[in-house]
Design a protein that fits this description.
- The protein has 339 residues and is of the alpha/beta class.
- It has two domains: 235 residues, TIM Barrel; 91 residues, Sulfite Reductase Hemoprotein, domain 1.
- 41% of the residues lie in helices and 20% in strands.
- The strands form three sheets. The protein has an eight-stranded parallel β-sheet with strand order 8-7-6-5-4-3-10-9. Strands 11-12-13-14-15 form a five-stranded mixed β-sheet. A two-stranded antiparallel sheet has the order 1-2.
- Helix 1 runs parallel beside helix 8, helix 2 runs parallel beside helix 3 and helix 7 packs parallel to helix 8.
- The relative contact order is 0.09.
- The model has no long low-confidence stretch (mean pLDDT 94).
- The structure holds iron/sulfur cluster.
- Iron/sulfur cluster binds next to loops.
């Protein structure tokens, strides 16, 4: 079902809008310079919404006043007490995230009323760890019950999330919910474990949902750097819609036919792209031999391909010259800058 459009600060979410990438701050709650520096790096990496834990009502105003300098919609993550959420709304946060598993129902209904009055948004976040739901289906059914309650209370400007550390449960919950409600979904897999495993779990779970066109905002959760969460979130979103928002390298996996050192070439090109601050959305092919190289490079804006004599340089699908192993990267970068 196509989700309805809602508004979080100055950003539209749901409907035909692109999937928005959200990040959550990890710096110490009272280290304001660190929080702002972290938030700035996340925004630079592509975050459009920033969420911050508000552990006590006394933090609400101070946190908001510092974080508003980030100039993106701010989300207060509030648990256990309704008054933390109320103070956060009053302080200026654009959206409040609450978990119906640890906060009283009347407090949430009251919060929906306050959010409606002030033009703010809510997220009802359901996690298998803190709700009476063990499976994806149970999680979705619980979320749908709450969805009805909030709509019945006359409030529409909210999203729902259903997260689990199980990828199949997360996918099942979101698929089921999206078949029964047009409430926008914030998607993510939670408690994903060590970073390498977390990247795979997030890619599998979010990838499955995004390819089904489910999800209006997303957050990648890793036991690791928050900027890496944003980079992975943006990449997943772009891959699922075949969108390029910056330079993308397509390189072959190599095999025994390979005529050139692909792994090192890819690393060097990545480094040069970073160092030269090249940001144009172009596809760069780096291929090992003439078997699949010229064909694969056709779909790229620019590419190099190893041959018995050195290599070919391919632009817009046409072979425009030959290169030697020594000048291959230099020639590629020269042509790249002309694009
Ligand atoms: S492009 Fe050539 S080297 Fe690379 S995987 Fe294909 S056949 Fe192997």
């Amino acid at each position: 079902m196509i989700s309805r459009e809602i508004k979080i600060g100055n950003i539209k979410v749901g409907g035909d809008n692109p999937v928005r990438v959200q990040g959550m701050l990890k710096s110490a709650i009272d280290d304001y310079p660190a929080l702002i520096e972290e938030g700035s790096r996340m925004i630079e990496a592509g975050a459009e919404l920033i969420r911050c834990a508000v552990p006590h009502e006394d933090y609400a105003v101070k946190l908001y006043n510092h974080l508003k300098t980030l100039r993106v919609p701010l989300i207060a993550d509030c648990h256990f007490k309704g008054r933390i959420a109320e103070k956060s709304l009053a302080a200026g946060f654009d959206k409040i995230r609450v978990n119906p598993g640890n906060i009283k129902e009347d407090a949430i209904i009251k919060m929906a009323g306050l959010a409606k009055k002030s033009g703010k948004a809510l997220r009802l976040g359901f996690n298998t760890g803190s709700c009476e739901a063990g499976t994806g289906l149970e999680l979705a059914q619980l979320a749908l019950k709450w969805d009805k309650k909030i709509l019945h209370a006359g409030f529409k400007n909210y999203v729902v999330s259903m997260k689990s550390s199980s990828v199949p449960d997360t996918v099942e919950a979101n698929r089921y919910f999206s078949m029964h409600s047009d409430t926008p979904l914030h998607i993510g897999v939670t408690a994903t474990g060590p970073e390498e495993e977390g990247i795979i779990k997030s890619s599998a779970g979010l990838g499955a949902l995004l390819l089904d066109e489910i999800g209006d905002t997303l957050r990648v959760s890793l036991t690791g750097d928050s900027v890496n969460e944003i980079k992975l979130g943006c990449t997943l979103r772009d891959i699922s819609t075949d969108t390029i928002s910056g330079p993308v390298i397509i390189s072959c996996p190599t095999c025994s036919r390979c005529r050139t050192e692909i792994k090192e070439t890819v690393k060097k090109v990545q480094k040069l792209i970073r160092e030269t601050d090249f940001k144009k959305p172009v596809k760069i092919a780096i291929m090992g031999c003439e078997v699949n190289g010229p064909g694969e490079a056709k779909s790229a804006d620019i590419g190099i391909c190893g041959t018995a004599k050195g290599g070919l340089i391919i632009k817009g699908g046409d072979i425009i010259g030959t290169v030697t192993p020594d000048n291959m990267i230099e020639k590629l970068m020269e042509e790249l800058k002309k694009l």
